[in-house]
């Protein structure tokens, strides 16, 4: 029991350190706050008037680009896990008597909390600055689903690092993968309008499921897609954690 | 007496390449065992294996007689590692760094604060405890790297080239600290490229090459291995015209190795032939840039055993 308590405290210390590393990194802060905000501002402004009176361009991009931000959390996670500057310090953590799995679990949790807080901040700004509509009383479902997508994405980024053994390579591949998933999910334009095949392909992108589910909650007030959506994200996260357990080897940090 | 740490017939393979080949050695309580070997000899591999971050293919590693894998958490608590790469957070204060790493070993509250202060004082950084390492010199960072490894008071400290590329002041400070740790009864496994450090601090030396132990013993025991030889190193301006065979005509010359413009000559210890060797080069019109006698030094032992200088 005492060993469990000590081990849990060790995890707490590690998590706090990883969270602080993210919080004090200007690049991570800008990537997770200013960059999505500017993107929403620019795309919303350029396409203003194209979405009718009920739904504004800011409403549309407010949600789709928060999903895009959530998708790119994978790169924040891989950065916090294996970035060159942090690699040696992570190595020293591995010398200590804490569980090996704490190392990647802590990165996933720290990334999840950090990026979810950033998303919360962004959402408040979007409501205040552009009056973005998140579903009124159903907004809580939107943010729970988005937060779980952050968790899924953080686990995806760390698993990718375990798989490719390097943050640089993982991020190069993730960059392509994320953009393809975002395009197929119709985040930037209506991918489905490209034809039947494109529409079928879009269902292979989890982004499509998340965006469709969120729009149904926001504009139809329909919660039927909420449970399958969050269940899918939780199961996906669990599978990715198993993937980390199977693929993470301390010698890859050497 | 049971050794504190023992590597027994350990082998490590990378594909077909043997990084360690049946490596066996013991570290005894209270000693400073210096681990020597040219680049690629397997020193770092051995250290990564001992620090449990690298697996091995065959053999056994024991800590106080019990297999490490059977007491992994206990073993890690007793171990302090000073890695070759700086393993510190550049944007966290010196005190914050030591506190964080020490807390992973279960230290809390007053004890944590005391040990952190003690470790920072020990490496001479207590006055800079509130500063971030990115404002430190290379030597100060190395000292902080050491403080992070000793705050939990490990029973055995593994140091992988802790003085690489630092100023003489920090280097002296680190060597002084190591001597102090030894006097306090700590056990240290130390790797370095600097032979003078080995001469200064070692109680026992282990020389490895190509993943195998090729010699071990105290400084004196290793120097005995030279037998009746002494080695002379001569750097010539241009050795292309030199016929090595003619050098054997000089009294006492037993062996000649030529690497570009560098000659390593083994001669019989009792024969004073330095003047004759110099005369040989002068008579053949070959300009000598440096002439060094490596007699009875560890460098000479190393050269004889591995055919290379330590920093080759």
From TrEMBL, chain A:
It is a multi-pass membrane protein. The keyword Membrane applies. It is found in: Membrane. The keyword Disulfide bond does not apply. InterPro entries: ABC2_TM, ABC_2_transport, Nod_factor_ABC_transporter. It holds the Pfam family ABC2_membrane. Keywords: Membrane, Transmembrane, Transmembrane helix. The chain crosses the membrane at residues 21-46, 58-81, 102-134, 140-161, 173-191, 223-244. This is ABC transporter permease. It comes from Paenibacillus profundus.
TrEMBL record, chain B:
Transmembrane segments: none annotated. One of its GO terms (molecular function) is ATP binding. It comes from the Bacteria. Pfam families: ABC_tran, DrrA1-3_C. InterPro entries: AAA+_ATPase, ABC_transporter-like_ATP-bd, ABC_transporter-like_CS, DrrA1/2-like_C, P-loop_NTPase. The keyword S-adenosyl-L-methionine does not apply. Residues 5-235 form the ABC transporter domain. Keywords: ATP-binding, Nucleotide-binding, Transport. PANTHER family: LINEARMYCIN RESISTANCE ATP-BINDING PROTEIN LNRL. This is ABC transporter ATP-binding protein. The lineage of its organism: Bacteria, Bacillati, Bacillota, Bacilli, Bacillales.
